[in-house]
Every structure is written in structure tokens, then in C-alpha cells.
Amino acid sequence: MMEETRRKLVASARAAFAEKGFANTSMDDLTAAAGLTRGALYHNFGDKKGLFAAVVDQIDAEMAARARALAEAEATIWDALLAEGSAYIEMALDPEVQRIVLRDGPAVLGDPAHWPSQNRCLDATRAAVAALLAQGVLRTVDVEAASRLLNGAALNAAFWVAACEDPSATLPKAQEAFRMLAEGLLAEHAP
């Protein structure tokens, strides 16, 4: 029963936040569509911000899963790393991702480096960088530094795409720059 209540609230909130944004979504918007009370919201999420954090986490997890699925189709860890970063940047074209994760997310939840979902992405990047370093594909580099910079580059490129006047025209520029930055880590003999 509790899990069903949480699911209903997250689904209702996701629709409301996507349509109206965080600031313009009322507590009544969040609970009425789910057929629940404010008490249910407070009990399960603490407040509107807690519910918003759950929505961001859900969307970010879906984004990571989509990017990971594309990465798994690649033949090498290097190609997978590039595909995952490029896919994450491309998801900035999705209006729901733009509004909830890339615009309202930082404004409401603060620095994405502190979001659990972003830290899961960083963990995946860290594992890929460590494997590439062990295979000799990358120059000698600090795994933590390289992982944070790659993650930050993809995230900031997604912010740029989401906020610009012509996201479709900006996307290929952002993806190409991400690829070129990442290639700077390659060892001389690497492909």
C-alpha cells in the first residue's frame, strides 16, 4: 500500500512538474491528480522538495539506463563511454528532462554533484575510466579527476543544449566537443 501511494505521488508529480515547473506546481496539484491527501505526501516525502527529488531521481535513473543500453551495444569500453556521454547530452532535447532535471533540478536541489542519481553516473564513469586505464587505452591520469571531468562535461553540455535557443542545432556541437575532450585522454597508441 505504501509503495503504491509513493508510485501514485511520483507519477502525479512528474506530470505536474513537467507541465508547470516546480515553482508553479501547488501541493493540491500534486495530491489531487493522485487522489491522495497532503498528509500522504508529507508522510512519504516530507515536503514538495522531497517529492521533487524523487522525481528527479527517477528521471535521471531512466536517462542513465537509456544511455547504458546504447553503450552496451558498442564493441569497446572506449566506444561505450563516448556513446553514453553523447546519449546523455542528447536527452537534453526531451522537454521533460529539460524542465525537471536540467532547469528546475539545480535550482531546487542545488549542485547535481550531490544528487544520488548523478553519483551513480559518476560511479559508472569511474569504472569505465579505471578499466580503460588498466587496458592502456588512456594516458596515465588520475581516475577520479578524469571521471569527474568527463561527467561534468556531459552534464554541462546537456545544460547548454537545454537552455539554448536552438537545441537541435547546438546538440551536434556539444556532442563533438565532448568527444574531442574525451579523446584528449587517449594514449598515443590508442585508436
Any idea what the radius of gyration is? 18 Å
| Shape category | elongated
CA(first)-CA(last) distance: 53 Å
Structural class per helix/strand content?
A: mainly alpha
Which percent band covers the strand fraction? under 5%
What is the average of the pLDDT values? 93
Number of spatially distinct domains: 2
Helix content: over 70%
Number of helical segments? Answer: 9
CATH topology of the largest domain: Tetracycline Repressor, domain 2
Per DSSP E runs of 2 or more residues, the count of β-strands stands at 0
**What is the element string, with H for helices and E for strands?**
HHHHHHHHH
Largest sheet: none
Highest-level CATH class of the largest domain: Mainly Alpha
Unreliable parts: none
CATH superfamily of the largest domain: Tetracycline Repressor, domain 2
Protein name: TetR/AcrR family transcriptional regulator
Pfam families: TetR_C_41 (PF21351), TetR_N (PF00440)
Keywords: DNA-binding
Q: What report would you give on this structure?
A:
The chain has 191 residues and is mainly α. It has two domains: 1-46, Arc Repressor Mutant, subunit A, CATH 1.10.10; 57-183, Tetracycline Repressor, domain 2 (Orthogonal Bundle), CATH 1.10.357.10. Helices cover 75% and strands 0% of the residues. It contains nine helices and no strands. It is elongated, with a radius of gyration of 18 Å.
